């Protein structure tokens, strides 16, 4: 992992450069002081020498890639360089901590933060830049000794290299005088293919042929169309290109055909010569590019051709432009490129590339059977077939993996060997012999150096693990895998690296979201094997694997704890089915105890598969004291109740995650962690956050509990580097957070939830916030309470006067880049003009809950609104033209897709009847709760999903015209005794869910719903119904539970699937709970 080392050395050298000027002045002043201070002068000089040493090592590492370390001598040298680099980074980090500590103390004295609570308010809102504070910090004796030892080790190693002649040998190798071991390479491809040997690519072949024969241009040249097939190594890109290239329709469509295997050497001269030879089927002797391009131009002029460029890696736009230039003189030309990188495809074309997916399981099985059985004409044993299918499943749809392991199984044709292959924890030796992993290694070899350590980092996680993208970014930050470049923010740099890994098909985005609704990433199993292969023994993943011994009625642990002395990055993973079976915390503590005393650990994380899992653990005080160089600690989902005070001794800690734990308090020492960048304690029941949070001067991400937030202490405004903050909670006391502290948090991005606005008493404090200048805030929540609790019958809320709340909400006008807005517990009688102002062109989601206005804001003016929810509108008597803006026209609500109205308990105006049809033509989902006086929603031509919760008018369905209605949910409607489905609105109904209607006795017209496919009736005890008599015959599946004398009856119903396989079914199930 030379990339990690180089990054660390660069950080060390740059940090020393920034620290040593003040150190130099310290040394200068010391030279005129007492003789007892002279050792500190020498210590500063040693630090300067260490800086020069780090720059020399960095130069060596930038000149040599870790993939060139082929023999033992080179590997040993790299290992020694790593140890020196890591130790130097640690010692510089500790000295920087001492400097930060001195600056924080000086700043606190300037701001009066070292006195009583009265002093804290004297300089409220003032921030002092720490870089402007000059302090003289002597080098401690311990650091001085360690710096000297590090330099002596480096000099000793350098002398040994020169004595043994290693430097000359390694330099000669890099200059090409000694040929290195052959690197991994991909064999060249050709256009020939045996179609009978290909499985599962028929649809992909047809899709690509359709593109190739299309008359629509795909590039900036009307006569040159470029198409690209993108996918990871071994997915079958070349195979699909061969199938399309050799199809009769393609051959008859083009006058010329050519196939060139490009690979990683994008030599324009050589490639032009190959293209000419491929078109003419004759060799070309020209050597000058000009002659070659003129010849190619003449060959294609006035003709149509198809050219396949297989396995392209080039990301240089100028090289591609040079290659394609002579091809533009054809009459009609098409290029089909295969590549692993979306970035390459973007350079070559403008239309989206064709992304090739994995083979389905059936096609993989067919391929395996052909490889293993057909050629040998063997009788297939049933037990071997079962094992074979399990082996195929482990290939996860990668054709090259199936071929590689199939070849191994054909050679080792016996059940015992196949079982060994199946049960092998490491497939790498088997697959490598089949030339699968070397093909994937090409992708790694071709990565830029800055991406390699980020890719290897994924070896810390188990296979099939869903990675939270933002969490990965924060861990990369804390471990210093990548440093700032080109003035970009660290988070932006790392998001760019995620994008690059995605474009190179090394990781994939999934459709699943985590508990924070963030996008998740996943890595193919074979790429995970590659990550493990390229990661050194510094990365260790330990599994809590339990076996149940019924004779002793206890759990027995099985660990592999080898190489603990070299581990710098440690993951402890619970298996998917044993987290709840871990008795006490002994198994986990045994692993942690094994690493007790380790002075080289940089990361320790506990991983659970389920977000609801909780692993019992206690953190011994003395253990943290030995992990003095730790950068990241992740104990999320651990059942910890307390952190030891010794947490404050981890001077280099940058990442601390205790989310979803049983933690009640944070130790005061937590705020001595001056290097901390990320602090996560979401979903914790913290009762109080201690004072001193303003000392976390490097904090960039604070994930506190936004569901049940506790008040933040005063000092949050001093965290001027903060970029993400889940909940900003305003208090009443002098030691509590004040709204004015938001003023200096100018780098906040993404989501901001402000709680406790009722506690704001000074409007000048609110004006200082100036939300309009915070242009990176995309989701904003303004909550006048400190929680989400409210009483729907509460008409006189506590807090500031209504006039003040109106003034406050007017002041808190956000930036126009806002995408989502939520306002809770607002007591004013009207909304300010900015709520619904058409200048908010990006605003797509609005939620208004628990408010006392009689009129709704003009949300109809928002051009991008797609989701609207109105909840607990206590005093709304009607919804009229003002709801849709001054100029109420059919263009209003042009993007609206979903509207959820809850607790609209007063009457509605007649204007609503005439306006809704025109302004809600795009509405597809409507949910109403306790809207008792709403008797009609008239015509909603696109409405397909309707949810009725609680009380609703019995004529609602009969009086409305809903021609596209497909799904209806009636839930928790305790007062209705009958449900009339004899109306035209439900004639096309496909799904019906009735839940928790305690008084419901009859459903009229149910058997006439001839389009109904899915039906669920649950918890309606007064309803006596017979499926065979009352249900329509067209039902695909139904469920009746807890109705009359029926306990449970179903047909083809999948338990837990909900009403429908769509978003509404999921939403309704969640709301019902």
From TrEMBL:
Disease resistance protein winged helix domain segment(s): 460-531
Keywords per UniProt: ATP-binding, Leucine-rich repeat, Nucleotide-binding, Plant defense, Repeat
NB-ARC domain ranges (all copies): 202-375
Pfam families the UniProt entry points to: LRR_14, LRR_R13L1-DRL21, NB-ARC, Rx_N, WHD_DRP
Residue stretches of biased makeup (Low complexity): 22-39
Chain segments annotated as transmembrane: none
GO annotation terms (biological process): defense response to bacterium; innate immune response-activating signaling pathway; plant-type hypersensitive response
The family this protein is said to belong to: Belongs to the disease resistance NB-LRR family.
Full protein name: NBS-LRR-like resistance protein
Lineage summary: Eukaryota, Viridiplantae, Streptophyta, Embryophyta, Tracheophyta
């Amino acid at each position: 992992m030379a990339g990690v080392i180089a990054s660390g050395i660069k950080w060390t050298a740059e940090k020393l450069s920034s620290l040593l000027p003040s150190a130099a002045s310290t040394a200068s002043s010391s030279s005129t002081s007492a003789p007892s201070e002279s050792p500190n002068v020498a210590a500063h000089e040693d630090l300067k020498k260490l800086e020069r040493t780090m720059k020399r090592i960095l130069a060596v590492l930038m000149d040599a890639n870790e993939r060139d370390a082929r023999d033992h001598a080179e590997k040993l040298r790299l290992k020694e360089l790593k140890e020196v680099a890591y130790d130097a980074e640690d010692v510089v980090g500790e000295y920087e901590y001492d400097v930060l500590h001195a600056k924080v103390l000086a700043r606190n004295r300037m701001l009066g933060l070292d006195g009583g609570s009265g002093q804290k308010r004297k300089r409220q809102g003032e921030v002092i830049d720490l870089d402007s504070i000059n302090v003289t910090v002597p080098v401690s004796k311990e650091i001085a000794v360690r710096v000297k030892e590090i330099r002596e080790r480096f000099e000793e190693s350098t002398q040994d290299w020169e004595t043994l002649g290693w430097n000359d040998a390694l330099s000669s190798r890099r200059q090409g005088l000694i040929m290195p071991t052959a690197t991994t390479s991909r064999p060249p491809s050709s256009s020939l293919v045996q179609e009978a040997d290909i499985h599962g690519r028929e649809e992909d072949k047809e899709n690509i042929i359709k593109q190739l024969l299309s008359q629509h241009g795909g590039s900036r040249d009307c006569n040159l169309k470029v198409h690209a097939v993108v996918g990871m190594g071994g997915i079958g890109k070349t195979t699909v290109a061969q199938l399309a290239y050799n199809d009769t329709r393609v051959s008859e469509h083009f006058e010329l055909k050519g196939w060139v295997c490009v690979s990683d050497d994008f030599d324009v001269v050589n490639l032009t010569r190959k293209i000419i030879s491929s078109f003419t089927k004759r060799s070309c002797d020209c050597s000058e590019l000009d002659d070659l391009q003129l010849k190619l131009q003449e060959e294609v002029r006035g003709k149509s051709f198809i050219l396949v460029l297989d396995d392209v890696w080039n990301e240089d736009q100028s090289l591609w432009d040079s290659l394609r230039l002579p091809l533009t003189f054809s009459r009609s030309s098409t290029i089909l490129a295969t590549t692993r990188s979306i970035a390459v495809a973007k350079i070559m074309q403008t239309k989206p590339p064709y992304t090739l997916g994995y083979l389905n399981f059936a096609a993989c099985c067919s391929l395996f059977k052909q490889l293993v059985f057909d050629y040998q004409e063997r009788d297939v044993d049933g037990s071997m077939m079962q094992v074979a299918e399990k082996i195929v499943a482990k290939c996860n749809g990668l054709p090259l993996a199936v071929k590689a392991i199939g070849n191994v199984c054909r050679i080792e044709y016996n059940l015992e060997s196949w079982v060994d292959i199946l049960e092998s924890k490491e497939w790498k030796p088997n697959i490598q012999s089949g030339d699968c992993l070397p093909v994937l290694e090409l992708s790694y070899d071709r990565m830029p150096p800055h991406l390699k350590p980020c890719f290897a980092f994924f070896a810390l996680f188990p296979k099939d693990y869903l990675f939270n993208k933002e969490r990965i970014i924060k861990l990369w930050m804390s471990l210093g895998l990548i440093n700032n470049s080109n003035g970009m923010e660290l988070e932006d740099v790392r998001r760019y690296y995620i994008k690059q890994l995605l474009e190179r098909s090394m990781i994939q985005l999934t459709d699943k979201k985590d508990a924070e609704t963030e996008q998740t990433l996943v890595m193919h199993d074979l790429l995970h094997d590659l990550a493990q292969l390229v990661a050194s023994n510094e990365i260790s993943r330990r599994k809590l694997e339990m076996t149940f011994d019924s004779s002793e009625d206890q759990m027995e642990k099985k660990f592999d704890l080898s190489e603990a002395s070299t581990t710098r990055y440690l993951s402890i993973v619970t298996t998917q089915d044993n987290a709840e079976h871990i008795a006490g915390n002994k198994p986990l503590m045994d692993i942690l105890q094994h690493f007790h005393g380790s002075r080289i650990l940089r990361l320790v994380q506990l991983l659970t598969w389920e977000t609801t899992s909780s692993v019992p653990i206690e953190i011994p005080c003395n253990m943290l004291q030995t992990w003095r160089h730790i950068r990241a600690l992740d104990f999320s989902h651990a059942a910890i109740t307390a952190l030891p005070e010794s947490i404050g001794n981890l001077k280099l800690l940058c990442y601390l995650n205790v989310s979803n734990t049983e933690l009640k308090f944070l130790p005061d020492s937590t705020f001595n962690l001056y290097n901390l960048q990320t602090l996560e304690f979401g979903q914790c029941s913290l009762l109080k956050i201690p004072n001193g949070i303003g000392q976390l001067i490097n904090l960039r991400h604070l994930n506190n509990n936004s569901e049940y937030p506790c008040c933040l202490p005063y000092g949050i405004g001093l965290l001027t580097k903060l970029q993400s903050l889940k909940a900003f909670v305003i208090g009443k006391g002098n030691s509590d957070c004040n709204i004015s502290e938001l003023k200096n948090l100018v780098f906040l991005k993404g989501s901001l939830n402000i709680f406790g606005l009722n506690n704001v008493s000074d409007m000048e404090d609110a004006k200082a916030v100036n939300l309009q200048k915070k242009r990176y805030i995309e989701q904003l929540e303004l909550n006048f309470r400190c929680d989400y609790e409210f009483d729907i019958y509460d008409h006189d809320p506590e807090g500031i006067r209504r006039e003040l709340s109106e003034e406050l909400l007017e002041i808190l006008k956000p930036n126009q880049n806002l995408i989502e807005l939520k306002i809770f517990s607002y007591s004013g009688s009207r909304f300010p003009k900015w709520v619904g102002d058409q200048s908010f062109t990006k605003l797509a989601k609005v939620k208004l809950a628990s408010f006392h206005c009689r009129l709704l804001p003009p949300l109809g003016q928002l051009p991008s609104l797609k989701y609207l929810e109105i909840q607990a509108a206590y005093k709304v008597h009607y919804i009229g033209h003002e709801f849709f803006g001054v100029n109420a026209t059919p263009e209003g609500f042009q993007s609206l897709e979903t509207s959820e109205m809850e607790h609209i308990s007063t009457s509605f105006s007649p204007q609503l009847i005439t306006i809704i049809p025109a302004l809600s033509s795009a509405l597809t989902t409507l949910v109403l709760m306790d809207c008792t006086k709403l008797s009609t929603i008239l015509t909603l031509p696109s409405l397909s999903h309707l949810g009725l919760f609680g009380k609703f008018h019995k004529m609602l369905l009969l009086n409305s015209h809903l021609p596209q209605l497909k799904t209806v949910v009636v839930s928790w409607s305790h007062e209705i005794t009958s449900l009339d489905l004899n109306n035209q609105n439900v004639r096309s109904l496909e799904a019906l869910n009735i839940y928790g209607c305690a008084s419901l006795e009859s459903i009229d017209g149910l058997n006439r719903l001839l389009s109904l496919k899915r039906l669920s009736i649950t918890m309606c005890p007064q309803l006596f119904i017979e499926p065979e008599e009352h249900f329509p015959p067209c039902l695909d599946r139904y469920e009746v539970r807890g109705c009359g004398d029926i306990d449970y009856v179903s047909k083809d119903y999948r338990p837990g699937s909900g009403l429908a396989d769509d978003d509404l079914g999921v939403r309704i199930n969640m709301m019902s709970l």
